[in-house]
Amino acid sequence: MLGNLGPAIQRSVIQQLKNRPKLIVMDTMNFWMETAWDDLLDTLKLIDVLVINDSEARQLSGEYSIVKGAKKIIQMGPKCVVIKKGEHGAMLFSQDNIFSAPALPIDEVFDPTGAGDTFAGGFIGHLARTGDLSFENMKTAVIVGSSLASFCVEKFGLERMKTVTQDEIKNRMLQFFKLANFETYA
């Protein structure tokens, strides 16, 4: 997981690896798009998954449509793109697949700071734990990341993340399942 550093530093980290990992996930932000465009494009060619928010996806792709933007970003190099949409959920794109996950409605958001990083940590943590890099498992990773991020916003900083339990995480994931599950209309 390449944290949100300058793209030249991220690329340098990749180039120093003796053996390429099975998956390289990268975070970036609008600042690097404005100040290190060429380095960013070069680094995108070396990664597997890009995790960004919706405004960053629009800026990077030049497209207002998230779907068109994700397709353009995939052409830049990553095999998958995860687009975080804050209180509106997250979307996962590959060349041939799209998955849209809702956000869990939270009664009171205390502090959204760090929710995106918490999402990314939950996403990559699930993939590392399972070792399954399929699109289907990445869909679950999006829900794990979203579940953890929903805890993050409940308190200031890391306070809520220090006390969250495995049972709470399982229950939160069940809430996501119930939120998105429905009977088909006949």
Write the topology of this structure.
Layout (H helix, E strand, L loop, with lengths): L6 H10 L8 E3 L2 H6 L1 H8 L4 E5 H8 L4 H10 L4 E5 L5 E5 L3 E4 L13 H16 L4 H18 L6 H5 L2 H15 L6
Parallel strand pairs: 1-2, 2-3
Antiparallel strand pairs: 3-4, 4-5
Helix pairs in contact: 1-3, 4-5, 6-7, 7-9
Describe the structure.
The chain has 186 residues and is an alpha/beta fold. It has a single domain, classed as 3-Layer(aba) Sandwich (UDP-N-acetylmuramoyl-L-alanine:D-glutamate ligase), CATH 3.40.1190.20. Helix content is 52%, strand content 12%. It is built from nine helices and five strands, in the order H-E-H-H-E-H-H-E-E-E-H-H-H-H. The chain has a five-stranded mixed sheet with strand order 1-2-3-4-5, sandwiched between helices. Helix 1 runs parallel beside helix 3 and helix 4 crosses helix 5. It is globular, with a radius of gyration of 16 Å.
Can you summarize this structure?
This protein has helices spanning 7-16, 30-35, 37-44, 54-61, 66-75, 115-130, 135-152, 159-163, 166-180; strands at residues 25-27, 49-53, 80-84, 90-94, 98-101. The chain has nine helices and five strands.
Q: In angstroms, what separates the terminal alpha carbons?
A: 44 Å
Our Rg estimate from Cα atoms comes to: 16 Å
- Globally, the shape reads globular
CATH fold-level name = UDP-N-acetylmuramoyl-L-alanine:D-glutamate ligase
Uncertain stretches of 5 or more adjacent residues: none
> What is the structural class?
alpha/beta
Whole-number total of structural domains: 1
Named at the architecture level, the CATH assignment is 3-Layer(aba) Sandwich
Q: Encode the helix/strand succession as letters.
A: HEHHEHHEEEHHHH
Q: Mind telling me the CATH class?
A: Alpha Beta
Per DSSP, what share of the residues sits in E-state strands of 2 or more residues? 5-15%
Spatial order of strands in the largest sheet: 1-2-3-4-5
Mean pLDDT: 93
Counting H and I runs of at least 4 residues, what is the number of helices?
9
CATH superfamily heading:
Ribokinase
Relative helix content:
40-55%
